[in-house]
Amino acid sequence: xxTIVDHPVQLLPEQVAALAWEPLSAGVHARVLAxxxxxxxxxxxxxxxxxxxxxxxxxxxxxxLYVLDxxxxxxxxxxxxxxxxxxxxxxxxxxxxxxxxxxxxxLEDAGARIRKPAVALTAExxxxxxxxxxxxxxxxxxxKVLSEGPCGSKTHLVKIEPLGDGAPNHRHAELHDHGEEMxxxxxCYFSGEERERHAAGTYTNNPPGTHHGPFEFSEPYxxxxxxxxx
Length: 230
Known about the structure:
- This protein is mainly β.
- The chain has two domains: 14-127, Jelly Rolls (Sandwich); 129-228, Jelly Rolls.
- The protein has two helices and 20 strands.
- The strands form three sheets. Strands 2, 3, 4, 5, 6, 7, 8, 9 and 10 form a nine-stranded antiparallel beta sheet that branches. It has a seven-stranded antiparallel beta sheet with strand order 1-18-15-20-13-12-11. Strands 14-19-16-17 form a four-stranded antiparallel beta sheet, with no helix packed on it.
- Strand 2 (22-25) and strand 3 form a beta hairpin.
- The mean pLDDT is 90.
- Residues 15-86, 125-228 form the ChrR-like cupin domain.
C-alpha cells in the first residue's frame, strides 16, 4: 500500500516464492506482500482453487485486482490472465475461480486522493488498448492506463524497450510524493549503482519520499505499476 507503508519493500522472485500461502477461506489462500496494521490496507497474491469464492472483506478500502493466471468470474463476466478491475470503497463484488483455479494480485488501499474510477477490463480489452508514449519519459517508454484519478493516482501497464541502436534504456533515480507499487511481469531490469538484477516476478513498494533507482533496461520489459496519493 503505497500510501501507508512506512518503509520500502523489495521482494525478488525467489523471496516472493518463499512466502507462505496462508488459508483465508474455503479454497482461498493468501500470500501477503505488504500490509499496514494501522489502516488494514494490504497487497497480496490470492490463490483460488477451482470453484472457490472470495467475498469482499473490507468495505472501507479501494480495491484493485489483476489476474495473474487462470480465470475468475466476476459480476457475470469471465476474466482471464491480464484482466484488471478497480472498485471504490464498498463496491467490490465476490470473485469466483473457474474450474482450473486462478491466481490474482489484490491491492487494497486507503486514501482520500485515490479517487480512481470503477473499472472492469477483460484481458481482451486490455490487449486491444494501444501502447501510448509516456509523457515526460524518453523514447522507448510506453504505457496502457488502466485506471486514473483526478488527483494523479494511476494504475497502468508500463513497457520499456531498449534504444533503437540496441543500447540499454535508462531511467534516472527518482524521489516523488506519491506511493508506488510495481510487479514485474516480463523481462528484467537493473537498479541502483550496484546494478542489482530484478527479473519478472519482482515486487517493490516505495512509500512517498523513497529514493530509488537509477534503472537500466537492456531487454524489453513490462510491469504493472500502481501510483496512489494519500
